[in-house]
Amino acid sequence: MVENGVGLLEIDRPPNNYFDEHLIGQIVDTAMELDDDPACRALVLASRGKHFCAGANFGTGGAFAEDSAAAAASLYRRAAQLFEVKTPIIAAVQGSAVGGGLGLACAADFRVADPSTRFVANFARLGFHQGFALSVTLPDLIGRQAAADMLLTGRRVDGTEAARLGLADRLAEPGRQRAVAMEWARSIAAAAPLAVRSIRATLRADLAARVRTALDHELAEQQWLWATADAAEGIAASLERREAVFKGE
After folding, report:
1. What pTM value is reported for the model?
2. What does the alpha-carbon distance between residue 69 and residue 84 come to, in Å, rounded to a whole number?
3. Using one digit for the tens of pLDDT, what is the confidence trace for 99-135?
4. What domains does the chain contain, in order, with CATH numbers?
5. For the sheet containing 156-158, what is the strand order?
């Protein structure tokens, strides 16, 4: 649906909005279709439910529960295409953006949060390497040192801190992320569309190529780390809602 120059990309798997290859593929395909629609000049990426996106589901029945490496390889092939979308994207982030969900939010040009929004790069607490091109996007957004802090500790960053770091571009009142994102998207849609795409292409330059290289490296690191005892412990601890005990094995 396109209204007032703005297209809406909506994730509808509440409450956690876990992703898989099919969901990311739907987002990519819809966004690329809207790239060719002259009526669409900006996109808003939003979710229904409590959380923006909790990333991959490692629990029973989840796409990543049995063969994480194969699921990630398929997912990343589609995720790489998201960075080739030509239309500006604003993500409306409520609740939590965790792991790959943070990666999805960082694929957008801008992020709108509220003070209680939580951004979490929890990979080290699960026992494996970051993915969804966060190796590129997170340092680009907040700098190498702040990105290293988030990635090595896996700590939660709330919306207020995210705004200070540059991870959240605008803070909305609680529950108004989507409304603020839509208003912002309409202001982009009101600008000259050819100029907007040209400026954005210059600013993002080699981003898509860097992302593809990063995804290949991230997947390779994830594959061997998923086979470790620490990863098994980290994932089990997360599902059981307890502190993990890592042994470096």
Report:
1. 0.95
2. 24
3. 999 999 999 999 999 999 999 999 999 999 999 999 9
4. 1-173+192-249 (3.90.226.10)
5. 96-98, 118-120, 156-158
